[in-house]
């Protein structure tokens, strides 16, 4: 994985600035956003978010037009494999905090 992006991602995950969410890169309800660990990475990469409709809380990445996983451009830019992306998404959704994700990133990426 690109070291500079990895360091920024870890810093963002540890900052407390991102409320942890699950099952979507980014959601917004009542004006408050929650992020999957991959959504935090997308935000670090400069992703702009847009609401697809008023009935669902998921925000869509303008860059990759996705709500659940990073697109090919983000994977290419970061150097993360599809395998690691799916592992991180699963770990994120099973955890109450970003701590296990941070450990995984440090140990395996």
Low-confidence stretches: none
The SS-based structural class is alpha+beta
Helical residue percent band: 40-55%
Q: How large is the share of residues in beta strands?
A: 5-15%
The ordered string of helix (H) and strand (E) elements is HEEHEEHHH
What best-fitting shape do the alpha-carbon axes yield? Answer: globular
Helix count equals 5
Q: How many domain modules?
A: 1
Mean pLDDT: 91
- How many strands appear in the DSSP assignment? 4
Model description:
The protein is an alpha+beta fold. The protein has helices spanning 3-14, 37-44, 72-78, 82-94, 99-108; strands spanning 26-29, 32-35, 49-51, 59-61. It has one domain (3-108). It contains 5 helices and 4 strands; from the N terminus they run αββαββααα.
Give a quick rundown of the structure.
The chain is α+β, with helices and mostly antiparallel strands and 109 residues long.
Tags for this model:
two-stranded antiparallel ribbon, alpha+beta, single chain, 46% helix, 109 residues
């Amino acid at each position: 994985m690109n070291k500079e992006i990895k360091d920024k991602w870890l810093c963002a995950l540890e900052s407390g600035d991102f409320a942890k969410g699950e099952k979507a890169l980014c959601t917004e309800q009542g004006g408050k956003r929650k992020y999957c660990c991959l959504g935090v990475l997308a935000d670090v990469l400069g992703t702009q978010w847009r609401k697809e409709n008023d009935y669902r809380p998921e925000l869509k990445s303008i860059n990759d037009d996705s709500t659940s996983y990073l697109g090919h451009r983000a994977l290419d830019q970061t150097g993360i494999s599809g395998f690691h992306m799916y592992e991180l998404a699963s770990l994120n959704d099973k955890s109450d905090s970003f701590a296990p994700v941070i450990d995984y990133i440090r140990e395996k990426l």
